[in-house]
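User: Can you recover a sequence for this backbone? Please restate the input before giving your answer.

Assistant: Of course. Working from this structure:
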């Protein structure tokens, strides 16, 4: 804290400082000082290592003090906060992700104050239910339309910049005659690459206007004639972000913070380029922010090709930014259509969102603007990430497997709907396997003279059946013989059993499914198991060898006229 204790400075792990002025809060001085002390206690390396964390708490804190200011009896300090006031504040919050954030962040700060009364502390400690996510993945056609639009936009921008970069390279090598149209265009591009501006008048009434001799070769003074020749626009950068999302499943905060990928030092001029991409995700907590990905560009469809194209499209913007602010290593850099704005901090966090006429990354509002401009209902990033990671990649993206399953996969209606036939198929397979394992008959090469023939198999021990009848012997139907360990099956039975299997297949299409399942499905499953054991060749030969006696026995069996 600095000054009178109402200004808190938060230095993040990079050394950048964000300033939070508690004098702007609509509260009594005592409450401001108390909240400032609680806030400052967390602005230390062991608690908050990024400005994202402090800003995450600052905005709900402003909302909380604004609410307290509306009360008939405002709260003068933390120790004056009652359980009733806290409950009123809690109930006033919307049942949304932001409302949940407001309650939990303010609660976390207040619970650090030992002066809270027991009743108030108990009220703050009550569980807050996290709202159900309302966000769902895009329908396939909708997401395809978003990606197609982004690809068309970025491809046009990349080709435009590449063509002008080629012209500039030719001019710098002395290819064009001095004073020629191609030479003048090269001069304009060189000035644009060095300064971010086309050659313009710096004095008089024409100040800021492109010099007349360059207007003709550039084709005009509008952005598409001047700076867009070498730099991406804000919306073209959103299109690039959408493509990074669709290919890699990264969320907007990760894409927004991307540093310039580094190429492998031994890639060589002819070999594939291997890029090392650093991913930063603050929500993981201190010490777990970063991970790296190696992306190889070895062809048009390779994961690193988009990185190559993005580096080419941002090459001049990044070089200009490095001149204006040495050491800046942001990947997504775009040129603003507005006049130079110098160093632009991002809200109270102090994190630069740009320098000069150049902007960094993609903001949420810009993403929404891009979607609206192209006729889409919402920002492509949150729902798009869910779509990519749950429906296309089907793997976590900067999340643990447990988080991926709980937050993304199980909560998504499309995933649940697509899972229905898969689960049903798996259940059917389990049932079929269970039925098949009931097949207990023993296969023999030939008949045993001591066995007793039946309609479907030979019985090795009729008097000790697993299904004894009231008077002894066996009471099971002939279809159950295949489930009996006393049954013996040899080649003489093959044709009859193959014909029974065929007859049951026909019967399945002729009767109600419920009747089929209750009376014939188990027997059919055991015959399927037998068919698999004997093999397709033996089964086909058995069907060809079916005799009239076999057919007659099967008809009697299916009609219930053949008793055991």
């Amino acid at each position: 804290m600095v000054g009178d204790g109402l200004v808190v400075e938060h230095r993040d792990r990079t050394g950048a400082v964000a300033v939070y002025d508690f004098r702007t809060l609509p509260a009594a001085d005592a409450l401001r000082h108390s909240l400032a002390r609680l806030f400052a206690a967390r602005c230390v390396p062991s608690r908050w290592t990024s400005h994202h964390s402090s800003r995450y708490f600052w905005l709900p804190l402003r909302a909380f003090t604004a609410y307290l200011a509306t009360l008939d009896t405002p709260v003068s300090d933390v120790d004056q906060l009652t359980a009733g006031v806290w409950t009123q504040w809690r109930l006033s919050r919307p049942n949304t992700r932001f409302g949940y954030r407001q309650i939990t962040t303010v609660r976390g700060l207040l619970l650090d104050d030992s002066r809270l009364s027991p009743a108030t502390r108990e009220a703050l400690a009550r569980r807050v239910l996290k709202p159900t996510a309302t966000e769902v993945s895009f329908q396939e056609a909708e997401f395809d339309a978003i990606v197609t639009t982004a690809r068309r936009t970025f491809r046009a921008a990349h080709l435009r910049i590449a063509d002008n970069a080629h012209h500039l390279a030719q001019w710098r090598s002395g290819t064009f005659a001095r004073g020629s149209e191609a030479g003048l265009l090269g001069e304009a591009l060189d000035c644009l690459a060095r300064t971010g501006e086309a050659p313009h008048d710096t004095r008089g009434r024409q100040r800021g206007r492109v010099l007349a001799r360059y207007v003709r070769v550039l084709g005009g003074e509008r952005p598409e004639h001047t700076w867009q020749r070498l730099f991406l626009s804000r919306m073209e950068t959103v299109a690039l972000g959408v493509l990074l999302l669709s290919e890699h499943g990264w969320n907007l905060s990760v894409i927004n913070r991307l540093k310039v990928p580094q190429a492998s030092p031994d890639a060589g001029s002819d070999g594939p380029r291997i890029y090392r991409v650093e991913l930063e995700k603050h929500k993981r907590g201190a010490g777990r922010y970063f991970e790296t990905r190696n992306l190889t560009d070895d062809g048009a469809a390779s994961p690193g090709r988009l990185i190559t194209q993005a580096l080419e499209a941002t090459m001049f913007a990044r070089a200009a930014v490095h001149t204006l602010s040495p050491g800046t290593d942001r990947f997504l850099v775009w040129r603003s259509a507005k006049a130079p704005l110098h160093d632009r901090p991002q809200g109270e966090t102090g994190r630069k969102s740009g320098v000069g006429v150049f902007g960094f990354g993609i903001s949420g509002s810009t993403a929404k603007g891009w979607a609206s401009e192209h006729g889409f209902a919402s920002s492509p990033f949150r729902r798009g990430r869910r779509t990519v990671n749950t429906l296309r990649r089907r793997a976590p993206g900067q999340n643990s497997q447990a988080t991926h399953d709980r937050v993304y996969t199980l909560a998504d209606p499309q995933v649940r709907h697509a899972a229905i036939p898969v689960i049903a198929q798996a259940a059917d397979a389990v049932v079929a396997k269970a039925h098949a394992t009931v097949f207990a008959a023993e296969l023999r090469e030939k008949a045993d003279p001591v066995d007793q023939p039946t309609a479907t198999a030979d019985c090795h021990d009729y008097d000790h059946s697993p299904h004894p009848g009231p008077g002894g012997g066996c009471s099971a139907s002939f279809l159950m013989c295949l489930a009996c360990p006393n049954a013996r099956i040899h080649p003489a039975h093959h044709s009859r059993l193959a014909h029974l299997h065929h007859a049951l297949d026909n019967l399945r299409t002729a009767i109600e499914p419920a009747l089929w399942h209750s009376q014939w499905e188990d027997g059919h499953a055991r015959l399927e198991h037998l068919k698999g054991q004997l093999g397709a060749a033996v089964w086909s030969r058995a069907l060809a060898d079916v005799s009239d006696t076999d057919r007659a026995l099967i008809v009697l069996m299916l009609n219930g006229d053949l008793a055991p």
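That completes the design. The longest helix spans residues 140-172.
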